[in-house]
Amino acid sequence: MDFIKPSLGTLTNSFQIRSNPKHFGIDLALPGNVSVKASAAGTVTRSYVSDSYGEVIFILHDINGQPYETVYAHMRKGSRKYQAGDTVKQGQVIGYMGSTGDATGQHLHFELHRGRWNGTKSNVVNPLDYIGDIPESVKETKQIIILPAEAESWRVYPLDKQPIKGNEAGYLNPKKFGGLQYNIVGTPGQDIYTIVTSDFGKVNIYGARSTGARIFNAS
Ligand SMILES: [Zn+2]
What is the whole-number distance in angstroms between the Cα of residue 136 and the centre of ligand 1? Predict the structure, then answer.
């Protein structure tokens, strides 16, 4: 494939230029640390902070003599790894998904232009017509655990203790936050998941289906 999906995530907003409001790219959303990858090999043409795009990188590609330009917007503050003039390989991590600029919630806004990007976006095309699967070499399999908003509190346990009542390291409050979700970084036992929380660090959580917790594949 000439172009690959630039990040993991679910498609939360499609390409749409036939009616208003227009959307000149696709949005891919996923919580946590989500790397953003060059969709094809090329040369960085712009890397800056825009009011609307936020932290953004533009990459110019040459596909059999045809120039294309891709745009990776709303990346996490300070996460841009390359500057104009740098060359990147396909699948190379160029930054991390964020919500900088004109964005509500963490996502990657990705544009593909057949020809150069321009202010009227006259060369824009639907990325989904060009994107193949992420090559095996850059594929990451991730699972996330979602603690629903209905849950009042959720026990978390130190990694070195059995996840049973009395061993709690603390409590999470999904209700307070309208639900919580974490990347699963380990599965030390049946229905036991290791997550990293801001309050308690790396802890285990009991997430059997009967608890209301839900496990999703993030890719
Ligand atoms: Zn968008």
Answer: 26
Residue type, 202: K
* Token pair belonging to 112: 């593909």
Q: 19: CA distance to ligand 1 center in Å?
A: 15
Three-state DSSP class for residue 180: strand
CA 48 to ligand 1 center in whole angstroms: 17
Backbone angles phi, psi at 115, to 5 degrees: 110, -170
Instruction: Say what the ipTM of the complex is.
Output: 0.98
Give tens-digit pLDDT for 58-83: 999 999 999 999 999 999 999 999 99
- For ligand 1, the distance from its centroid to the CA atom of residue 74, given in whole angstroms, is 9
Q: Which domain holds residue 203?
A: 143-217
Q: Compute the distance from residue 118 Cα to the ligand 1 centre, in Å.
A: 17
Q: What is the pLDDT of residues 129-164, one digit of tens each?
A: 999 644 433 445 578 899 998 888 899 999 999 888
Rg (C-alpha) for the chain, rounded Å, is 20
CATH number of domain containing 29: 2.70.70.10
Q: What is the DSSP letter of 46?
A: E
120 with 166, same domain: the answer is no
Q: How far is the centre of ligand 1, averaged over its atoms, from the C-alpha of 24 (Å)?
A: 7
